Amino acid sequence: MRRLIRILAMSTRWERHPAAKSHGFSCILQSAKGFTLIEVIVTIIAAGIMGAFFMNYMGTAMSQSTRSIDLVKAEAEAEAKLEKIIADYVYEINRTPNDALSTIVTRNQGQVYGSRITMQYIEFVISGTTGTENVLSSGTSDTLKVTVELDVPFSAARKSLTTLLTKSRLANSPTVQF
Known about the structure:
178 residues; two-stranded antiparallel ribbon; single chain
């Protein structure tokens, strides 16, 4: 029997426990292979910390990923409003050139184009002063500044699209084709 144990110990790396030798026991123990409990706990804690950082980073990126989509959507809606205003202006300037600007302003006051649209008559100053335009209260100017604000949710910065409409046609000018 001892010979069989000795052969097994040599072939499979079985060893006798030191306490077994001193007390005369014949128990055989296998040498340790694998991870200790401390190594497993440290690995789990490290993976948890790394996972928390990763989820925090990815959570922020995921929650902010829709902002560009919202911006594009708001920009498309603002462009559609601006195109509607320009199309109406072209129609009105072909029909009655002298009243085209005032007609567009009147339609805006009736909320035909929707909210977040401002229209101001402006006059450009060429005298070299720091201001490049003066806002006029009435329709005494030939230039109308139309600004459409973008409705972007969760955005602190105000974004807008602006165009200038001018009374550049006379009553006897040929119609404009757009």
